[in-house]
Amino acid sequence: MSRVVAIDNLSVEIRGREILRGISLEINEGELVCVAGSIGSGKSTFLKVLTGIIPELYKGFRVYGNISIFGLKPVEVLHKGLVAYVPQDVYSFFIGSTPREELAILGIDSSCCSDIDLDKDIDHLSDGQLYRFLLYSALFSGAKFIAIDEPSSHIDWWSIEEVFRGIERFVNDEKTIVVVADHKLDTLKKFCSKIIDLDDSRRSYCSFPSITTLQRSKVIVEIENIWVSYNGKSILRDISLSINLGEAIAIVGRNGSGKTT
């Protein structure tokens, strides 16, 4: 394997606030690298710096140290279309009104996204479906360096291992580089050739106040036989539920199962 990414003593700050400090790293072609760290540790900033988005599109940042990707600066790699970035905010990167239109604009073959309804309005796809679509689009864009931001926040836990097995195969076959930032690496770390922990030099600890137990005998929400459909397609079917005062309710389900609805 040949080294294609070299990071030497990278530090980033904005308005005098240090976000990243003294990061040095080498990445070879065909590697899947995971960036770990708690929320707010600088994972997204790290990806945006590597892909040239900072400081090209986000002003006010000061970037110190040296980064070489394919022998170029990150912003040069960005302009050449050699990098792709999958953001946390899935709604901020779309141009077309449907996935098929988006793929046509980007010049990507629609066969990359066989499990996505390509003719459905983007506004009607679930968060997880949109993220999968962005992920597939990045992988098949022709980019040789792909940064993926917080996939576990969008892809349900039934699917995430399957998705990353596919990414691992893609990286091995195409000799691309994929860098994934996520604060939940228990599942993903087995796919990673390297793990960077941004918390190593920035550890902080906090304690949580005790929670007062609330009275839970009073029913404040009652749902009975709820059905929801859209354009003839059933989204929710026969849901009944009671919620008591002081209860925290978790709604779980696969991407596209109707949780947001």
Automatic annotation (TrEMBL):
Keyword Nucleotide-binding attached: yes
Entry keywords, A to Z: ATP-binding, Nucleotide-binding, Transport
The ABC transporter domain, residue ranges: 5-225
Keyword set includes Transport: yes
Example of a GO MF term: ATP binding
Annotated Gene3D superfamilies: P-loop containing nucleotide triphosphate hydrolases
One matching Pfam family: ABC_tran
InterPro entries in alphabetical order: ABC_transporter-like_ATP-bd, Metal_Ion_Import_ABC, P-loop_NTPase
Membership in a protein family: Belongs to the ABC transporter superfamily.
UniProt protein name: ATP-binding cassette domain-containing protein
Taxonomic source organism: Ignisphaera aggregans
Lineage: Archaea, Thermoproteota, Thermoprotei, Desulfurococcales, Desulfurococcaceae
